[in-house]
Design brief:
Layout: E1 2-3, E2 9-10, H1 24-28, H2 31-42, E3 48-49, H3 50-57, H4 61-74, E4 77-85, E5 98-102, E6 105-115, H5 122-147, E7 148-155, E8 169-175, H6 177-191, E9 197-200, H7 202-210, H8 214-221, E10 225-229, E11 232-233
Parallel strand pairs: 2-10, 8-9
Antiparallel strand pairs: 1-11, 3-6, 4-6, 5-6, 7-8, 7-10
Length: 235
């Protein structure tokens, strides 16, 4: 027997460091803090305002404000002030805003938050967050396998720090689209960024391989982390 897919890097999600029930919340104190750190550290070039962070990590506003203050006090993240036009954003009710009228539009001062790239343990914290993704991957795999029959699943793109790859995740098998989208949405909240995914039934996957589909070939040839592979053929 041999694998249909060549050049794969297999990862056993059961081999994640720590006890089976270990979570970063145990280390950092709260799920909100972990999600904030994961989002901000994964996007060090970006600044986020409070309500944007609240939506992205699906947390309570007061909880997000409290954790932001703690992280600013520690020095892990920075608080900066900026201005945006109201018609470029739907967050019009932030308590920290100072509004002035400019040409009939609201010019709004907001407090933004971003990772502090010169923090003493910046790279170490980023490394911890990236390694913890193994645990998130395990939860995601469990969820999709409960909701469908998955034959092949791998991570690439942003998960291997290569944003040039056209997709971050390939899923092959049988699963309802609504269930898959919900699982992806939950996964995005946990890892702190959007996931560009590709889904196809097993028959389509095999057909595309046979005709040497360029898109699929480019995904299969890139570096990847294979989490599920039940696609085998008899020699």
């Amino acid at each position: 027997m041999k694998s249909i897919v060549k050049g794969e890097k297999k990862v056993n999600t059961n081999d994640a460091v720590g006890a089976p029930d270990f979570s970063l919340e145990q280390l950092f104190g709260s799920k909100t803090r972990v999600r904030l750190l994961r989002l901000l550290l994964d996007n060090p070039e970006r600044s986020f305002y409070v309500r944007e962070l609240t939506r992205r990590i699906e947390a309570q506003l007061n909880s997000v404000r409290r954790e932001l203050k703690n992280l600013v006090d520690i020095g892990i993240i920075l608080e900066v002030e900026g201005k945006i036009l109201e018609n470029e954003d739907d967050d019009e009710n932030d308590e920290s805003e100072e509004d002035t009228k400019v040409k009939g539009k609201t010019n709004t001062k907001k407090k933004y938050y971003r990772a502090n790239a010169v923090f003493s343990f910046f790279e170490e914290l980023r490394s911890i967050m990236k390694k913890s993704s193994v645990l998130m991957n395990k939860s995601f795999v469990i969820e999709v396998e409960k909701k469908g029959k998955i034959d092949f699943l791998f991570l690439t793109g942003r998960f291997i720090d290569n944003k040039t790859v056209p997709s971050d995740l390939l899923i092959v098998g049988e699963i309802k689209i609504d269930d898959l989208q919900q699982a992806i949405s939950n996964f995005e909240v946990e890892i702190g960024h959007e996931v560009n995914y590709t889904y196809m039934p097993k028959e389509e996957f095999i057909y595309r391989q046979e005709i040497k589909d360029r898109f699929l070939s480019s995904l299969l040839q890139t570096e990847k982390v294979v989490l599920i592979n039940k696609l085998i053929e008899t020699v």
